[in-house]
Amino acid sequence: MENVKHPEIFGTVTIGERGQIVIPSHLREKLHLMKGDKLVIFCHLNQIIGLIRSNEMYEFLNRITNRMVKNVEKFKEAIKKQGI
Q1: Least packed by Cβ within 10 Å: which of 17, 24, 65, 71?
Q2: Dihedrals phi, psi of 44, to nearest 5 degrees
Q3: What's the rounded Cα separation, in Å, for the pair 53 and 39?
Q4: Per-residue pLDDT at 13
Q5: Nearest to residue 33, comparing CAs of 11, 4, 62, 6?
Q6: Long-range pairs, 67-70, Cβ under 8 A, ≥24
Q7: Alpha-carbon torsion, ordered 46, 48, 56, 31, to 10 deg
């Protein structure tokens, strides 16, 4: 199956009696999720906004940090050009 490249909605999940959720099988297959995989839950303003495999967390944070540094550098250059 092809990788997910853009945000998509895959359906809904229900929290069971023990607080567990079941990720739909078609999504588990598409994302190659296996029994026992650990996921990190991202929240913002008391809402869940995403899940990521815990073993991919470092790379994910590294990509975000690199993008932030590049944006800060572009912002600094723009300020210099404006003479601020």
Answers
A1: 17
A2: -150, 130
A3: 4
A4: 85
A5: 4
A6: none
A7: 180
Structure tokens at 42: 């991202």
- Separation between Cα atoms, residue 71 and residue 77, nearest integer Å: 10
The tokens 């078609």 sit on which residue? 26
pLDDT tens, residue by residue, 5-63? 666 777 788 889 999 988 888 888 988 999 999 998 888 898 888 888 888 888 888 88
Taking residues 59-82, report their average pLDDT: 87
With bands split at pLDDT 50, 70 and 90, how would you rate the model's confidence at 3? Answer: low
Helix (H, G, I), strand (E, B) or coil at 8: coil
The secondary element (H helix, E strand) that includes residue 48 is strand 47-53
CA 20, CA 23: separation in Å to the nearest integer?
10
Confidence label for 4 from pLDDT (cuts 50, 70 and 90)? low
